Amino acid sequence: MKKIALLLSLLSTCFWVFCQDIATERPLIEAAPTPQAVSDANTEAGKKVDSLFAAYNSQTPGAAVAIVKDGKVVFQKGYGMADLDHDIPVTPQTVFNIASVSKQFTAFAIYLLASEGRISLEDDIRKYITELPDYQTVIKVKHLLGHTSGLRDQAAIWSLAGNLSGDISTTEQILKLIARQRNLNFTPGTAFSYCNTGYTLLAEIIHRVTGKSFATYTAEKIFKPLGMINTQFYDNYGKVVKNKAESYELINGVYFHHPLNVSNPGPSNLLTTVEDLTKWALNFEHPVVGTPALIKAFNEASYLDNGRKVVLRISGERDTIFHAKGQNLSNYKGVDMITHGGHTAAFRTFMGRFPGERLAIIALSNDENNERLNARWQIADFYIKDKLKEEKPSAAGTGQSVVKPAVVYPSNLQDFAGDYYSDELSTRYTFVVRGNTLIMTHLKLEDIELKRAGEHKFSGSGPETFAFDIEFLRDEKQGVSGFTISNFGIKDLKFVKLK
């Protein structure tokens, strides 16, 4: 009996030790815990969120959604497929490219670097990016943050240079292209114009000041401290990333891959999950990275040099949207919000915070048509409906179209035919006349039919270019000598007619 009692005692001790080992076991990589809470109201709201994304299934791309309310994650879910080729569903751990939602992280990293005393937001950017042209005016770091630099937008330049969606794009290429631009769109600090170029330069400033890659600096200063273990700035498009969603576009009822071969972090190219972004949202309430004072300054609107707030858009009688360093300040049905969306390849992304209501909405998708759901705003209705004011519908138009009289221009379309070259873009366009239409052609792009807008003015838009305006130039002998072209991010870039 004594032997049996001793054996039972030993077994009991072993079982107790085994249980302690299990209880104290830790994962190889520790992530900061994300508070969780579910109430009846949140459960009901979650069902409504489900209804918004009900169209996604095993035959479609999809979306991942997360909701943070009152300091806790109250909803996380995936819909549809991350990879249609391999039947991999979207989950809260699916990694998306969040496109321009990336910008707030780039801006925050600059604020951290400034808080370390290593740069000033008042610095001339040519102190760090020495290869930029001298525009005879100072472009400051703060101008890059607020989209008030006057620099030409890299996406606008890139498209007109003849590059295709899916082409390889690197920071090195972009920097070379930026350095070739001889003019600004406007005097720095005097106006707003959305500019991806500025955020490429911000990332490059961090690299040159710290001696570390931008991806490394942000990992060390932001993502690791917050436990965002599935988040990284993607600086090599060939790098394997587990659980990464593919992007898809629906064309004539068939899904096609929309490739993204970009190694240019800063304005875009942050890879992350909705699960990780909940930790970023919570950091604004209880800072782990950055101080309350830094976050307060970061969330404030940017300013022009004349002291006025930077206005992104005025979309209604009292609905002014201000820009604030990679974020937009506005209100939804009377409730203040801080938001930004993103679109690259077929990724459609959104992050919105309603600080006064302690609500954050995160919605990431790999579906080009996801925007049609308008889900980002409806989700707010489910969680803070009692705080929202119903908006009055805008007055309907008369529905009467205005017929403009036909205009006959003295210039013959053949006057504009010929080859034109820009050394700033290192590219050439050829104009030909087909019937009664002027056609703009490029070796790599589809032909573009131009619409006449004046004696020497035309407009157009191709599948790979943004909408643009052209004005042909004449020399002292009244011969056509070239043209200038403008789009959302370029003003009057000059092409010269080749003899």
Short structural summary:
With about 500 residues, the chain is of the alpha+beta class. The protein contains eleven helices and 26 strands. It has helices at about 1-25, 40-50, 105-115, 140-145, 155-160, 170-180, 195-210, 215-225, 275-285, 290-300, 375-385, and strands spanning about 65-70, 70-80, 80-85, 90, 95, 170, 230-235, 250, 255, 260-265, 270, 310-315, 320-325, 330, 335-345, 345-355, 360-365, 420, 425-435, 435-440, 450, 450, 455-460, 470-475, 480-485, 490-495.
Strand content: 25-35%
What is the radius of gyration computed over CA atoms, rounded to a whole number of angstroms? 27 Å
User: Counting H and I runs of at least 4 residues, what is the number of helices?
Assistant: 11
Amount of helix: 25-40%
**What do the pLDDT scores average to?**
90
Number of strands: 26
| Count of domain modules | 2
CATH architecture of the largest domain: 3-Layer(aba) Sandwich
Query: CA-to-CA gap between the ends?
Result: 111 Å
CA-based shape = globular
> Spans with pLDDT under 50 lasting ≥5 residues?
1-32
Strand arrangement, major sheet: 21-20-19-18-26-25-24-23-22
Largest sheet: 9 strands, antiparallel
Q: Mind telling me the CATH class of the largest domain? A: Alpha Beta
> Which structural class should the secondary elements be placed in?
alpha+beta
CATH H-level superfamily title of the largest domain: DD-peptidase/beta-lactamase superfamily
CATH fold name of the largest domain, please?
A: Beta-lactamase
Pfam families: Beta-lactamase
Signal peptide: 1-19
Domain Beta-lactamase-related: 49-378
Protein name: Beta-lactamase family protein
